[in-house]
Amino acid sequence: MKTLQLVPAMEQGGVERGVVEVNRALAAAGWENVVVSAGGRLVEQIVADGGRHITLDVKSKNPFTYFFRAAKLRRVLESERPDVVCAHSRVPAWLFVWANRTCGIRWISFAHGANSVSRYSAVMTRGDLTVAPSNFIAEYLKKNYGLADEKIRVIPRAIEHSKFDPENLDKDFVAAKRAEWSISGKFVVMGVGRITQLKGYDTLIRAVHLANQLVSGETDSSAAKPFKLVIVGEAESLRKDVEDELRLLVKIMRMDDAVIFAGNQRKIAECLSLANVVVSSNTRKPEAFGRSMAEALAMGRPVVAKAFGGALDIVEDGVNGALVPADVERGEGEVKAFAESILRVSRMSFGDLRSATLEKFSFDRMIDRTMSVYRECRKIR
Question: Which of 3, 241, 248, 347 has the most CB within a 10 Å radius?
Answer without folding.
Answer: 3
